[in-house]
Backbone:
């Protein structure tokens, strides 16, 4: 079968690889849709230290079960499935607290084990026994279902930060995850959502979404704009969805007293330190939260949100391509011409 294989830093290739074979406690799916994630772009551009090549990339997927091991009873051939793709061990200290995304012995699809930019994918027992694999509702398309994985990560971060009515929410970064953050905030009851995006191309694309205000920082001062929109008070919640240290600093300028900041995006690992005035946190009584990945429950909640039509997937999925055009999809993302690119193996 054909697959997109990470062969090392700067080496991502379309290759012929063996079709996986079912085992007693695994199942095989035919991949129907798999979206390109920022992790895949990062692997393509600069590599990821935790990946041990060769490995097939891709983890935002929907597939159809075609073969089931004799020890598997929950899933049958024909079932459409998706997955919270950081598979937990189920017994470490984090798992015992239901913090499956922070599992100390996790098994992520598309980095540690083969992913879904391929015609077929084997789901191991670890991905089945702890609820990571789940059915896709009949009313949800394959492409929309593939958005559940990134949306689950967004829901995890918003649960931690406690996004709710009547919050005023600012999201920094207008990429796919930032757009999902803004629309999810609205779905959770935020009375005002403001998106800040540097690139004019992405700012134009953002206006197709259910977001109250879109600010292009190339054209105006985002701090002044946000303060004007919040009567000088700042936002109740600021979510940084931009992998940039200046965005982290901006978050502390935009947040209101007693506000919450979610550090949703990572920053470059070789330069991760940010100078912050600790008195802003102290006197303003500001709460700062980290958020990484998602749990199976987050993924299930994402499916419900998608099924309810609360996310503008038609605007988010800008390109649908075949596996052989994977590299064209990467190029479109890098040129800011695409938001979500869905690959159809």
Residues:
């Amino acid at each position: 079968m054909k697959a997109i294989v990470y062969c090392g830093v700067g080496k991502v290739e379309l290759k012929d690889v063996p079709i996986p074979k079912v085992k007693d406690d695994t199942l095989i799916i035919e991949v129907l849709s798999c979206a390109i994630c920022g992790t895949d772009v990062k692997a393509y551009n600069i590599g990821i230290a935790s990946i041990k090549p060769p490995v097939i990339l891709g983890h935002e997927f929907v597939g159809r079960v075609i073969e089931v091991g004799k020890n598997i009873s929950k899933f049958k051939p024909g079932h459409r499935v998706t997955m919270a793709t950081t598979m937990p061990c189920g017994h470490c200290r984090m798992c015992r607290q239901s913090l499956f995304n922070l599992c100390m012995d996790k098994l992520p699809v598309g980095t540690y084990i083969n992913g879904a930019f391929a015609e077929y994918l084997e789901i191991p027992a670890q991905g089945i026994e702890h609820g990571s694999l789940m059915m896709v509702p009949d009313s949800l398309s394959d492409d929309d279902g593939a958005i559940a994985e990134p949306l689950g990560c967004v829901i995890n971060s918003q649960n931690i930060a406690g996004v709710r009515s009547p919050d005023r929410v600012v999201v920094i970064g207008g990429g796919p995850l930032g757009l999902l953050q803004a629309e999810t905030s609205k779905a959770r009851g935020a009375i005002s959502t403001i998106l800040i995006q540097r690139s004019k191309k992405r700012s134009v694309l953002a206006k197709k979404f259910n977001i109250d205000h879109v600010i292009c920082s190339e054209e105006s001062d985002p701090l002044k704009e946000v303060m004007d929109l919040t009567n000088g008070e700042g936002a109740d919640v600021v979510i940084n969805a931009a992998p940039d240290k200046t965005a982290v600093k901006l978050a502390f300028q935009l947040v209101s007293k007693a506000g919450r900041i979610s550090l949703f995006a990572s920053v470059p690992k070789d330069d991760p330190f940010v100078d912050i005035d600790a008195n802003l946190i102290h006197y303003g009584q500001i709460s700062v939260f980290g958020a990484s990945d998602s749990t199976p429950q987050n993924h299930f909640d994402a499916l419900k949100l998608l099924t309810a039509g609360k996310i503008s997937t038609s605007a988010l999925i800008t390109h649908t391509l075949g596996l052989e055009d994977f590299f064209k999809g990467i190029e479109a993302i890098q040129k800011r011409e695409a938001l979500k690119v869905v690959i159809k193996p």
The CA atoms of residues 260 and 287 lie 5 Å apart. The mean pLDDT is 96.
